[in-house]
Amino acid sequence: MSDRPTVLVPIRVLDGESIPEGTPALLSKAHVVLLGYHEVPDQTAPGQARMQFEERANQRLDEFERMLEDAGATVETRLVFTHEGQTTIDRMIAEYDCLAVLVPNATSEPEDVLVAVRGTVGTGRLVRVVAGLFADSDVGVTLYHVADEGETDEDAETLLDGIAASLVEAGIEADAIDTRVAHEGRAKDAIVDTAAGFDAVVMGESDPTLATFVFGMPAEQVADRFLGPVLVVQREKVDADEDSTTD
Q: Model's pTM, two decimal places?
């Protein structure tokens, strides 16, 4: 069985966000870093907000932690009051060396997962996430690649066949893996259109810097247009700037 991949789950813990339906089942084999964060106004000190809201925020985090653990996940929690939510998320990715970040949306218990392959960069980490979450299960895995201009069918099939072989070696049943290649349209549009038939999407980070890992980038655009959860596999860890949050 594959090692548990470390997945960051950021939740705006005091803004009404919660663990969506289906998320515990999706992450049952993960090591979850559950980040509860709350953005405070510039004129408010994070420490002041912590004194006022910490107890209520921790109660919410404890509830979410139990939900994930009951499904089988291992969980670490962090509570952060910050002026810059994105900076805090970036810092947690680096601090915990997270393989992926979940953009949470509701789903049913996963049966079919779309794995969007953008190229050869980061495929090892993609394999670790997919195998870690879905090996020794009945989940079907579809490897999907939108070919670049000039890329041949043979090139695309070689790419996907190599990833499929790595997944099989890591514990995914060969007959649970399907491959698809598309040749038309922009990648994110093709992924969104194809994702409609799946319970979750796994895709790689499209930008090499943590500062733009999801929000405002194609992965988030996919999440905004796809009703299910999106796991964004991170590139190799880089140094993240320290922020001034209190946590």
A: 0.85
